[in-house]
Amino acid sequence: MGSIFFPPVEIKTEGMEQVHLPRMVQVRQFFDASFIQEPQRVLEEELERKGRLCGDLTGKRVAVTVGSRGIPHLAQLVRTTVDWLKAQGAQPFIVPAMGSHGGASAEGQLEIVNSYGVTEEAVGVPVLPTMEVVQLGTLDDGTPVYCDRFAAQADGLVLLNKVKPHTDFKGPYESGLAKMMAIGLGNHKGASMFHMMGMDTFPERIPKVAEVYLRTLPVLFGIAAVQNAYDDLCLLEVVPADRLMEREPVLLNIAKDRMGKFKFDDIDVLVVDEIGKNISGAGLDPNIVGRNFSRNLSGVLRLKKLFVRGLTEETHHVGIGISLADITTRRCLNSIDFSAVWANAVTATVIQAGAIPMYAENDRDALRLAIRTCNGIDFDHARVVRIKNTLEVSEFSVSESLAEELRSRDDIQILSGPREMRFDSDGFLLDGD
Question: Structure pTM?
Fold first, then answer.
């Protein structure tokens, strides 16, 4: 692992005696909670109704994509898809489609796919990772269009991915099926070529690359997953290849309407317990915290300081997103594989995504420093919010003074507290507090 040893640090500054950690109150935000109770059954019905439109699959080798984003029930959805394909006489297999994630290696991408429960044993078909690509064509601007070798050689291609707002650009096609073709299936080489033209070109170029795929490869259909604010699946849809470009912008708008966000827009210090590639391509969702690598996101949240405490297990030490934090801890930084982070940042041509924030020895020190460095606030009434991650913004804790402002809201419920923050003997916040 490409780790860096960060030495102990002691930060001395005037005014720390004025900083008092607030008592915290547990609150709940209310969103549309409707979700799919039996996702496998819904997918089976969708496949029966729309999958058959792709014709006779007898004897055909069909590649099914799996990306790096966490999707609820992913292994079961993959298994349902491959079982349906087998029933049609096809010979399905799994292809990781995640650009340069997993340290830009076949082994790393296999590890990510397996960590989601998508193993050969679990889904009953081979999982074939590779960094090898073939060129499908060239865009008008000279950008070569690449595709994973195994996917390109298949007799059919099924795109399975989450549709959601992207973290660094806006357009009719953001994170979803078209982007999985444009970047995910391009592996490290294709993702690198695409990013070299700049992220501001993504809205225009993603559909162009997707059209090359649709013209060149036997894309059968897409399987689009949309999640609600509670991280549950609220929509599963099989999209025939000839309707994919028409349908995805509609699904993206649904995803935007259903995503969670803070129902207030002014926070002094936001504490995020964990970040990871399974949560967002940026480690944490800029559409919630109001920060992205391109520094072009505004109007989302007025946030003074961001404190990131750690990484998810599923991100496999890839701490992409830590650069968005103002402060973290030495323990967090020492857990990060910076070789993988920097490989991802260079591929995306966003070097600042590999930057390292200030760090403190423990959570208590980091939080006090974050509050101390907020300009123009009352240190006794700091607006502090703590969430587990940006997928879980329905229930979390807020400082006592902020809770008082929220009591009159009918879309926010006060659950418990106030209570003092609790730390272990080393000064780290206890889980669940």
Answer: 0.77
